[in-house]
Amino acid sequence: MIELSVQRESFPLRGTFTISRGSRTVAEVVRVTLSRNGKRGQGEGVPYSRYDETVESVVAAIEAQRDALAAGMSREALQHAMPPGSARTAIDCALWDLEAKEAGCRAWELAGLPAPVEVTTAYTLSLDSPEAMGGAARQNAERPLLKLKLAGPEDLDRVRAVNANAPNSRLIVDANEGWTAEQYEAFAPELKTLGVAMIEQPLPAGDDAALAGVQRTVPVCADESCHDRATLSALEGKYDLVNIKLDKTGGLTEALALREEARARGFGIMVGCMVGTSLSMAPAVLVAQGAEFVDLDGPLWMAEDRSPGLVFEGSQMAPPSAALWG
Question: Considering the entire predicted model, what is its pTM?
Fold first, then answer.
């Protein structure tokens, strides 16, 4: 019998995190703890309003699985019992953690994967004026990979300011569905000269067909357009990479399967995150192995992360300890 505990938690950020859809100063997360025979596993989901999620709706969806979990629901059964999203993510990752602790091994061993190594994560520069983003870039100029949140007309000036203040950093940009097809075609050639290696979700997910008809001067990555394996077919011919986020896939189980199928279809891999704690990032480190781009900097935005948390040295992220997850 598995005992379920659900907690909603708030973690203040060390600044205001802004994207094209709005700003936040707090990370609101839902933590699931599953206990059985003295062993305990944990997982975290980050509700996201873009996908019509609230903390309340995610907690309710998790609570609805209480009886099934008590009856011994497996990870495989969970995939059919719940749709992709942060509620399933929290349970799925907690089940991985619980199973690893019961087996006396690490989660990657259960998955048949080699031991993970440290990865280099992007560091995100929140959307702001070109001057402010240039200043933030100057403060983080030693980081090898910077991710810029963009929004529209001033975007070239924002990238120019970042490039001027962090000339040795590789850049990726994320429009969060904030551009038009015309803006992509106008911006991309200049972005390429400014050292931008990838553009993430330039067009709205429901209006991205235009990407199939333009020359993609800079590779384009699907974020809001890519959730799980069922969404892959619609991305072919429009995107070059897919951004795998556990809160979209519904957990580590589907994320690993999505990575395998995406690679088989010729997509490059980015592994990203919502604004969550180290408990959210820890399972994603397994998916991030060998990815072209890794964006798991959520804990770096926390005023205070969980303890124990992931260990960062600059932008280098070590694999999770067993005390944290898996």
Answer: 0.96
